[in-house]
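Notebook B, p. 112. Complex prediction, attempt 2.
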Amino acid sequence: MERASAALREASPALLLLGLLAAAPFLGFGQGYTMTLLARAMILAMAAVSLSVLVGGAGLVSLGHAAPLGVGAYAVVALDAAGVTEGLVVLPGAAAAAALFALATGAVAIRTSGVHFIMITLAFGQMAFFTAGSLTAYGGDDGYTLYGRTELFGTRLLEDRLGFHWVCLGLLAAVLLLCRLLLASRFGRVLRASRENPLRVRAVGFEPYPFRLLAYALMGAVAGLAGALLANATEFVAPSYMAWQRSGDLLFMAILGGLGSLPGAVAGALAIVLLEEWLSELTEHWRLIFGPLLILSVLFLRGGLAGLPAQLGGLLRRG
Amino acid sequence: MADGGPVLELRGLRKRFGGLAVTDDVSLAVAPGAIHAVIGPNGAGKTTLVHQISGLLAPDSGRVLFAGEDVTALPMHRRARLGLARTFQITSVVPGFSALENAALAVQARSGSSFRLLRPAAGQLALDDPAMEALEAVGLADRARTPAGALSHGERRQLELAVALAMRPRLLLLDEPLAGAGPEEAERLVGVLSGLRGRYAILLVEHDMPAVFALADGISVLVYGRVVATGPPAAIRANPEVRAAYLGEDDAA
């Protein structure tokens, strides 16, 4: 009983965010454009959650997480060009392609650490970016337009705004749950211990490398799934999916959310996508406001958005 | 393990850092259940020796035999799996984990696969029960739920020992377990260590002379990387070469 209520308390930020997203269509946000924006935020949230597992859980600060996302998107393109549009093939296919990419690049990158790891993931990301630009069959630098969205069980569920919303929300919830379980498992325990003290982990009998590599591949798969959904959301795929700026955005979402907090990464993704949109409506020089806001948030939000309730509570008590 | 053979045997171990010989033809053996101490002044190469035994550093030549098996080429984590548990001169625990979870991590290493991805590890009795036993053995059971980072220095020392015990080791390799401990903490740790006598083979590297002479069955004296004397405590205490090189005439009790 006590345990169940503790588990509920722990899960409440995630449940609150998912509940808000579920309620959004009924709260007057059902218009086309807002729904598109929310879908985009949920998709990027999935990628940000997977990056948060890598950075906050495994200590792997990747500056190339847009690459597996892009690989997932290009898997949709490749399958579309081959005439395959069934989601039960496309979505696992995109995740598998991204996992393989992460496995191959991670096998090299994870041998390094610290700044070297950041640089090598950035380099692999740029390689993927330029490779995508040279794929003339898929539009090269100009990108590739999808004329139909991925189908699910042969139905055109994803063409429907509300249907797409539910699919994204369901997958985001599944990603949150699976990542949470992963971090709490025996595997996750070794992973977390390796972030804090790899020497201690070796001294009790584990080599951290295979644990880190598997986590890197699995989180690559999650990013690939997000990439496949993003391709469907925009019905267009271009090399810019893999640009390092997007890797930076994802990293920022995870950090803004509060490192190691998975619901925080969702909040970070929502905040950045919505803020970007809102500011760009106000002024075309929105980046002049956006940048300083990000800096202020890093300076003053100690535990990220996830730590905000506690921080506000502390202020109220003192005030 | 060969019956009656030593748990740990070093044969002609050598290590140089540039022109400096930090381990110079070191040979020694630790019998099952025995506490063997390595003493020596600062810079004698004690910690370098511990690193070579645990697998953190590779020797330039010589061999490390563990339970009769040549482990010279094995990395640290493989030696740990064989039952070689070490502590560090600067205490090494996982600060964000509770004391219990630190010990449970060690239990996990010797029980089943750790590539289990979905079932929560916390609360698994197969892990927590042996972990709790290890904490009890060092007198830290009442701090099981405290994060390791919030423990006092002496408690972290105890925890590191509990983590080593949770590995069910064949040899405990303790690198200055009393360093930085206050008199009271040191006394408690010596009590814990003497409680382990006979149950584990222990190689103890230590500065604290009264503790060494109280605990050790055998002592090797290391000076400039060389073993200048090996023998039972009484013989070491009486050895004039040792007194001159290390203990200091007036210091020798």
